[in-house]
Amino acid sequence: MLETPDRVEFIAQHGKWFCVKKLQIKGDTPPIDIFRVLVSIRESTGRKVDEYLHRAGFDKAKLDEVVEEIAPAKRGRYTNEEVNRILMRLRGPSVAKKLGDISPVKEGRELARVYIAKQVLNRVGIRVDYDLKTVDKYLEEMEKLEYAK
Hints:
By secondary structure, this protein is mainly alpha-helical. About 60% of the residues lie in helices and about 10% in strands.
């Protein structure tokens, strides 16, 4: 039996969308490199997840309307008080009612809630996912610290 090397491989293709992420893992591969490729996969697929949610029958306009009602777009940063009120609205009964209008199925309402929550949190400046830009900045700053020693 052949032993295959440790690796991360992700290949996706649908229509014109094509995504390949690969990393060969050796004994000296730093964990941060594995983390980085996994974040890269998540970033690439994350953009498509929302697109396919809409293609699966969820009305993007209705979902975005709920986001706008919960956290109206504004210039500048939201204050902590505004964020608290927005988070209360996110879990409130009016959103539950709107979710009922979006899907008659409990699981459909939960999928819609996830989309809405992600959009609302991003709007108010609360990150819910890692991003490569931050990972790369972290690596750069850590390298500076190591170099300074």
